[in-house]
Structure formats: C-alpha cells, structure tokens
Amino acid sequence: MEEDQNHHHHQWADPLLLTDVSLQQRISHQYNSQNQIASPPRSHFVAMADSVFHHDPDDGTSWQNDPISNELVDGKSMLGFSLTSPDLVICGGSPEIPKSSYGESPEFSERIQCSFEVSLENGIKGSDDNNGSHKNKTPSVRFSSFNKEFSPESSLELLPPSTMPEQDPVPVVSINEDYREPMLLEAKRFSQLEECESTKDSGERGVKGDYERLKMSYECQKKELTEAKRTLEELKRENQLKNKEYQETWKSLQELQNELMRKSMHVGSLAFAIEGQVKEKSRWFSSLRDLTRRLKIMKMEHINLFEEALAYKKCAAEISEASSTIQSKINHQVQLYEHLKIKFIEGTKERKELYNKVLELKGNIRVFCRCRPLNSEETAAGSVMAVDFESVRDGELTVISNGAPKKTFKFDAVFGPQADQVDVFQDTAPFANSVLDGYNVCIFAYGQTGTGKTFTMEGTKEARGVNFRTLEELFRIIKEREKLYRYDISVSVLEVYNEQIRDLLAVGSQPGAVSKRLEVRQAGEGMHHVPGLVEAHVNNISEVWEVLQTGSNVRAVGSTNANEHSSRSHCMHCVMVRRELVEWGMHKEQAMASGSSRKNSKLTHLLQDSLGGDSKTLMFVQISPNENDLSETLCSLNFASRVRGIELGAAKKQLDTSELLRYKQMVEKTKQELKSRDVQSKRMEDTIHGLDLKLKDKDLKIKSLQDKVKELETQLLVERKLARQHVDTKIAEQHLKQQQQEELKYCTIEATTWKSFAIKVISPIEKENNPEMTEQPRLPNRTGRASLCTAVRRIPLTSAPRRNSLIPLPSAPTSAPLTPALLPLPPCEVDEKEEIDECLTEQVIHCNSPKVIKSESKKLSSALRRSLQKKMQRKSPMQQHFRRGGVNVGMQQLRVSIGSRGRMAHRVLLGAGRRGGTKEIHQKQNQKEKERGWNIGTAGRII
Ligand SMILES: Nc1ncnc2c1ncn2[C@@H]1O[C@H](COP(=O)(O)OP(=O)(O)OP(=O)(O)O)[C@@H](O)[C@H]1O
C-alpha cells in the first residue's frame, strides 16, 4: 500500500513541476517583452505542495486561486494553480502562457522534480517607486523539495537589474546550476534587443529624430499593440478553450479522484478482510494443528490400548489355558473326591459296623445302675445305707443287709449318690451317635417309686437329664455332619396311664381332661406307631426344652409313700430323626424312644420296636440307698441283672480284643484320611473359586477395554470427518476469496454496465452429498472487464482442490471405471452396497497419505468390480438369458420333463415366439450360453 501511494505521488507530482517551470518562464518572458505592465505584479508566487498563493508584499495580502475558474479571487492576477488533493495537482495555466512552454516541462520536471519558491520582488519594471531599495535586491527561487540530483542548497536566482538608469530593469533569471540554460537564453535575447535600441537612440538626438523615433516607436508600438490585441484575443479564446478543457478535465479528475477514493476505500476494506482472513486462516491452521496433535495422541492411545488389549487377550488365553488345566485338575480332584467319598461312605459304613460290633460286644441292652442319695427325711430318720458304694468298681455293686454284704450285682455302669447328671450322660452319649447312624435306640429308667427315674431322664432346669442332653448331643452331631446330611427332628411326648395312651403335646391335654384315645398300630413293615400323635418339629435345643417342659407339666402326678410328687404314670419321649444325604437325596427314618417305665403291657407294646432287632437299649435301674427299701432294691437289681444277662450272649463277650483293636485302628485311620481329604478338597475349591473370580475380573476388564477402544475409534472417525469437512469448507472459501481477489486485482477501472445473473454457490460438501449437483451445466467463464460494483458476486463453480494431506472422500463409486459390458447390469444389491460401504469406511479410516489413498481407491475399484462380478455370477446364465431375451420365467411356469433316467426334472420349454428378440440376438445368446457350458436347447437335460 505504501508503495502504491508513493507510485501515485510520483505519477501526479510531474504536472506540478511542469506547471511551476512554465510559470517561471512565462513570468520572465512577460517582463522582458513588456516592461510596462498595467499593474505590475510586484509580488512573488509560492508554489507549494498543496496550493499556489499570490502574495502582495505591500499590503501583505495573499490570494489563492479559484480552483474552478482558475482566476484569482480579487481579480488582480490571471495566474493560478489548483491542488485539489494531495495526490492530484491540476494546472490551471495562465492566458499568457504559450502552449509551447508545456512541451518543455516534462524534461525539466524530469530533471528537476522538485517544487520551489519564486521571488520576483525586485526584478519587475513598474514596481513601486517608493520602494526603490527593493530594486537592488536579487530575485531568487528557492527549492523546497529535491530529489537526489539537487542539493538542499541549490537555488535559482534572478539576474541583478541593468545599470542603465533610463532603461527599465530587466528581470533575468539565473540558475546556479546547469539547469538554468532556458532562462539564460531568454535573458540574452532580451539584452541584445536592448543594445540595438540604445545604439539607435545615440545616433539621433534631434527633435526630428525624436519624432521619427517616436513615430516609429508609435508605429511599432501600434503594431505591437495590434499584434498584442490580436494575440490577446487569441489568448483569450485559447484561454476559454483551456478553461473549458480544464473544467472538463477537472470534472474528470474529480470523478477519477472519487473513483480512486472509492477504490482506496475498497482496497482498504479488502485489506481489512484479507487481514481477517489471514487471522482466520491462522486460527484454523492452529486448530488443525491441534486436531492433528490430538489425533496423534488418540492414535497413540489407540495403539497403546490395542497393545494392552492384545496383552489382555494373551493373558486371557493364558488364563483360559490355566483354567482348562485347573478344570482338568478339578475334574481329577472331583474324581478323587468321588473316589474318596465312596471310600468315606464305605469307611463310615465300616465304622458303623465296627461301632455296632463294639456296642454289641458291650451289649445291645446296656444296664446302668444309679442310686439316689438319701433324702433329708431319710437322713433325719437315721436310715441305714443298704448299698456298699465304697466297694463299687468295674460296674459291680454289693448290697448290704444287716451290715454284711448280701449280694453282688454287675452292671455296665454304676452311679452312686455322688454322681451328677454329667457323669451319667458321659456313658449315654454314644447312643445319640447310634440314633444319627440310623439305629433305634431306647433309653428308659426302671425302678421303685421315688428312686429318681424322672430325675435321671428329665432332670431339672439346673441339672438337665438324659433326654435333654441326648437331644443336645444330637444337634451337636447334626451340626458336624451338616455338609453330608440334613436332619429333621421331631419330638412326641405321651403318657401311659391305666393302660391308656395320652398325648401330652396335644391341645387340651390337661390332667383329667377328656382327650382323644390313642392306640398302638402296626405299620406295613412291622413298625409300631401311634396314629394321631403330635410330632413337634424342633430345630434347636431351646425348642426341645420347651417341648419337654410342655409334656412334663401336663403329666399326671400324685403322691406315694416314697414320692410326694410321684408321676403316677409312664412317660415316653419319642424323638423321630429323619436323615437326608445332601448329594444323593436319600431319605431314611429311624427313631429314639426314652421313657421311664414300670412293667406294663401297653408300654411293652410301644417299646417293642426299640427293644428288639438292631435297636440299642439302655436301661437305668434306679435304686434307693435306704435299707428300708432293700427288698424293692433287690427286686429291681435282680430284674436288671436278668435283662442284662439275657441280652448279652456269652459268645459275643468272648470276642478277641486284638481284632477289636485292629478295627478301631482302621476306623481311626479312615477318619484321619477323610479329614485330610476334606481339607484338601476345601483348599482346591477355594483355589478354583479364586481363579474363577480372577478370570471373571479379567474378562470384565477386557470387555471394558474393548468397549473403550471401540468408543475411541468411533470418536476418532467422527472427529476426522468433522475436521475434514471443516477444512474442506475453509479451503474452498479461501480459494473462492483468492479468486475474487485475483479478479479484483486484474480488473480495469471502467464504467461498464453488467447484466447481472444469479449463480448458485455449490460448496464442495454439498457436491459430495449431492453428486447430481455437479452435473449442472456450468456457466461460461466471463471474459473482459469486471465491474467493481456488480450486484451479484461472481463465484467460480469449480471446487477447491483437495489436499493430499487431508482425507478425501472417495469418488470411486461414481468414477470407478465401468466397462460397457457391465453398465447395463442392475444396481448392486444390499450386500454389495454393504461391501462398498465397508470399503468406504475402511478407506475413510485409514487413508491419510496419497499412497494409501491410491491403494484404497484401487481397493474400492476392485471391490466394485468384484461386487459386479458377483452380481453377474449370482444370476445364473439361464436367468440372464431369459432376462435378456425378455422371457419371464418362473419355476411355476416351467414344465417338467423326464430325463434319460426317467427322473422328473424341470425342463424349459422355450418357443421361438416366447423368447423374443431377433434371431441374431438369439444366436448370440446361445453362443454365450454355450461358452458358459449351458445348452438350453437340449431336450431332456436335467436342470
Ligand atoms: N440322684 C439324685 N440326686 C439327688 N436327688 C435325687 C436323685 N434321684 C432322685 N432324687 C430326688 O428324689 C425325689 C424323687 O425322685 P423322682 O421323682 O425322680 O422319683 P421317681 O422314680 O420318678 O418317682 P415316681 O415313680 O413316683 O414318679 C426327687 O425329689 C428327686 O429330686
């Protein structure tokens, strides 16, 4: 812009210099030829950069010339200049300035190229006489601006006035440089004329001479005046013409100036717009850089994630391999476990058998003898002890009568008055184990009234009896075996009184109340039971206690001589145990009965199942220590001895103890093995569980990573697409703007009328999305001038060229080379489109370099070709033939013909009329079908 302005300045500065020099010459010439000027312009003219002033030093006034009329405002001078703008200087010219003087100006201006100040104060004839002192001064011209050829000290001076007093001073311009020749020549010519006239005057001194001289002078002046008048007229006319021309030129210049101003403004706005565009472009480039950087980062992340995913896949494969190994080990362990389980079951069975053998060795009916302590009354009465407890050892008991041992009894265990409930139960507990092993167990107490049967079996809250403790032991063992078995325990409490069975758990079973009559029945397998008896399910020992208390509270009680609170009845607690093997789901039902009993047929009937077969029986024979009860005691002990003696076979007792020991060792060994196997199996299960959890965690991680990779890929694709669209749009806009700028640059400034027309702007993106838009006819390119003020902007239809660094949309689907033979085929089906779409997607994702774009384009073309070939192959030759021949063939329309082997097959009946088309076409088609191995015309061919 600055250069342009300088250019314009130089271009328009020349007329200023031209005018100034011409003015200078004209002034010199005028004062030499006509010394008498009516109103001598004793003044100096100053030509400055922006205006020309006429200055009168006498009154100090200055006038500026009228730029339009080129006349001074007060009419004192005809000379003037106009400077309408800093760039444009228009010369008005004076009527006295001949045209020829303008011809010299360019050279002079070229040489000088400066503005200057002219001072003519002392060199003009007719100046004010009162200011004679000014005549001695030297007119001078001062330069105000110079190029490199002039130094700032350069000056242009007028010559000093003539020494002849009678003659008018002749202002002579002298220039102290070589550029003053034109002015010096003019001054020389004037001085020669002056010399000639002075010589003539010196020869004639007389009146005649004066007359003649005056006459000649008059004639001469007259002629000169006439000539001057004529010249003046011509100059006036010329001045008018010049004025007219000047006005036209002035108007033109004003228009041009206006146009220039508009253009300057337009250029300024364009510069502003360009600056904005440059900023926008830089912003977009920075955005693009940022996007590229992010893309790189995302690529790196993608690569890292991909590698991580691969590592995880590898890890998953390893885990899978480990899992399969573990699974095989588990299977092996499971097999081992099954084997051990079988062994365990066998061992358990063996243990049970051995245990039973041990019990059998000990006796299926075991008899414990328990003697209560003397009560307070007996002690107070000074009762004597009839039993010698000091000599009690190994189950032997000696009855004393009158201070001497009367009879010794031997039982499985003997508990004296000091033995508490815990001691008694220690030997009773193994029967609880037998109950859970599936044996019928019967525990009952037998004895005289008041000897402690109820105390032993039920006990008190502070000293729980055998019933409670046995059930407690049952629950303890159930807890131990809960992994192997599930047990269900129910309790029934009944009373046998006066040969009647009473359910103590039934509602309304209060003493004396009328209750439902219960009877003992025999089941199908010979088992005896009481139909309608309440069975209370118990899950823990507290429920057991409640049930026992309920039954105990409703027992029929009375008083005897020996027992103030005698129960007066037989009470029986039946505990039903149902066992279920956890894995096998087997069900077994067996029972335990306990009670306190007297000899009674009903009771015997009830205990029939528990007293025979495989059942185990424990009898507590309760005795009184009082010597007064000796006969009753001996009776009970004798009965118990018989019971024990009857059940214990002598042969069994004689079994070898070493064999029993060996069996015991085997049982212990099996138990240890089972325990260790259990621990091992548990460890393996825990390990497998932990590995399963790890595997699941890894699977979840892999899945989340895969999802993340997919998400990143999708995001990358979207961002690439957006960036590509954005950059394409911006490049297209940039391209359009550049083209407009180029058009503006090269357009000429001329007034031109345009017939405006609308051009639809098609962006590259629209063109991609609507390919048919590209097929619109292109308007012809305009040639010639361009108007700056057209109503519609001219926008080229050609889209901006793509950059290779960006991702171009593939144009293969429309530009793929299709051979004429392929063109008539119908468009691709959905699967082929999908294939192409896949190619496109793949291309969009991966093509980021020209090589890749080229290869992807090739891939796309080949995919298209493949899809079209598939399309051709998919249509069978027969179908193609029918399609080309114009025959509509469906399976229902085909006739079935019999082949050579008599098989039914579809046969095509093609009449010449149905095939359609000409014979030539038919022959060609036949030829093609033959080439493909099809012979439609063969009759009986199996299709
Ligand atoms: N081993 C013992 N230690 C302390 N006290 C006992 C013992 N045995 C019995 N007794 C007490 O003897 C009394 C009578 O006992 P219990 O009622 O159990 O006899 P019983 O045989 O059930 O009588 P019945 O046949 O008449 O019902 C009770 O007060 C009981 O507390």
UniProtKB/TrEMBL annotation:
The keyword ATP-binding applies. SMART domains: KISc. Residues 211-249, 695-722 form a coiled coil. Residues 364-571, 599-646 form the Kinesin motor domain. GO terms for cellular component: microtubule cytoskeleton. Signal peptide: none annotated. PROSITE patterns: KINESIN_MOTOR_2 (PS50067). ATP binds at G447, Q448, T449, G450, T451, G452, K453, T454. This is Kinesin motor domain-containing protein. It comes from Citrus sinensis (Sweet orange).
